[in-house]
Design goal:
The chain is built from nine helices and five strands, in the order E-E-E-H-E-E-H-H-H-H-H-H-H-H. It is α+β, with helices and mostly antiparallel strands and 206 residues long. A five-stranded antiparallel β-sheet has the order 3-2-1-4-5. The protein is globular, with a radius of gyration of 17 Å. The chain starts with a strand and ends with a helix. This is Holliday junction branch migration complex subunit RuvA. Its main location: cytoplasm. It is found in: Cytoplasm.
Length: 206
């Protein structure tokens, strides 16, 4: 298992980061929060989880070991794969997710795209007794250094595609882009990752 990668960030997307390791560029799928804290050309360390399938090897990257452990724990629940686990961590912070499961807060869990009431109930039933075993100790938080990507209209396509990749519909993604458009007007240098994070927050609101 690849538990951690350290190297120079050479490329960033709304939910992806490419880290250069010994001349090789390693692609990791990351949350918008994690992407927003990375900067192209700067060193970074990610806690990672390698998901092996018959036809693919996919590396997921996280700002802390706590996020990685929750990502892996979520996948032990029935019907939860890496895509849904990543979406859960994109919408809810580790402490919010842990509390929602521990307190049986179904409404909070249902903010995750793809999780309905039955799915939320299943997460509570299967993970409530395990969730507190995954603690925040030993978190390897990355420094908060947001990258600027420049203005223009390309951000909308990137944010929309990123949201749809996490499970939202094209209609919801377009509406979320409209909610954050003012951020680009206020600061054309706002990073796509920061816009993605803001869009997620707008979707998570009741």
């Amino acid at each position: 298992m690849i538990a951690q990668v350290s190297g120079t960030v050479i490329q960033l997307g709304p939910t992806t980061a490419v880290i250069e390791l010994g001349g090789l560029g390693v692609l990791a799928l990351v949350s918008p929060d994690t992407a927003a804290d990375l900067r192209v050309g700067q060193p970074a360390t990610l806690a990672t989880s390698l998901v092996v399938r018959e036809d693919s090897l996919t590396l997921y990257g996280f700002a802390s070991t706590d996020e990685r452990e929750l990502f892996e724990l979520l996948q032990t629940a029935t019907g939860v794969g890496p895509k849904l686990a990543q979406a859960a961590l994109a919408v809810l912070r580790p402490d919010e997710l842990r509390q929602a499961i521990a307190t049986e807060n179904l409404l909070t869990l249902m903010k995750v795209p793809g999780v309905g009431r039955k799915g939320a109930q299943r997460l509570v039933i299967e993970l409530k007794d395990k969730i507190n075993a995954v603690g925040a100790a030993g978190q390897a938080e990355l420094p908060a250094t947001a990258a600027k990507t420049g203005g223009g209209s390309a951000w909308r396509d990137q944010v929309s595609q990123g949201l749809q990749g996490l499970g939202w519909s094209a209609k919801d993604a377009d509406a979320a882009c409209g909610e954050v458009e003012h951020l680009v007007r206020d600061d054309p240098g706002t990073s796509v990752a920061s816009l993605m994070k803001a869009a997620l927050q707008s979707l998570a609101r009741p």
